[in-house]
Every structure is written in C-alpha cells, then in structure tokens.
Amino acid sequence: MSMNVQNGDAYVFLNKNLTNLKILHAEFGGLVIYNLKLERGTIQLPEMDKEDMSGSLTVAWSELVLMVQGLSLSQCTRQTRWSPRKK
Question: What InterPro entries has UniProt attached to this entry (predicted)?
Fold first, then answer.
C-alpha cells in the first residue's frame, strides 16, 4: 500500500459480513478510530474489479460518507459544478 495516514489518507476496515466498519484517520492530536456497527442491513460497497481482488480499494471521501450514511453508490448522481479552467 502506498498510502500514508499522516498525509490525510484514511484506512477503512470491514468485516466479512459487511456489518462493521472501522476508519483510521489522523487528526491534529493523533490517530482516531471511528467505528460503525450496523444492527440491520449491510454496508454497500462500490463496484470492484473482479480480477483484482487484492483487498484494497481507493474511494473518494464523498463516497465513503455515502457508504456510512447507508446510501447506494450506484443510484447516486453527482451534479456538475463550476470549476476554473486549468492553465
């Protein structure tokens, strides 16, 4: 893995049943672990490449928030926003 939690990356850990999610994230005072345990249902994962089952997947922070909120990633659409032209 070429990620570094000190550079703002977060590590997400899931159990086999997809009912428990832990996030390791660096804050100003140190490392923080967030824990989400579902009483009902499972966590919806984004589509993964079936050939590359390395167990690691890169997702945007907004996609991670959708996963934690319980929203389906495949049914959500992103609205286009203005962004300045790159020179």
Answer: Transposase_IS66_Orf2
Q: Which residues have C-beta within 8 Å of that of residue 40, sequence separation ≥ 6?
A: none
> What whole-number distance in Å separates Cα of residue 63 and Cα of residue 72?
10
Query: Which has the closest alpha carbon to 38: 14, 58, 61?
Result: 14
Ramachandran angles phi, psi of 65, nearest 5°: -65, -40
Whole-angstrom distance, CA of residue 57 vs CA of residue 76? 19
Kindly give the confidence (pLDDT) of every residue in the chain, 87 residues in length, as a single tens digit, with 9 standing for 90 and above: 567 777 778 888 889 888 999 998 888 888 899 999 999 988 887 776 656 656 677 888 888 888 888 887 777 777 777 888 887
Residue 70 structure tokens = 């319980």
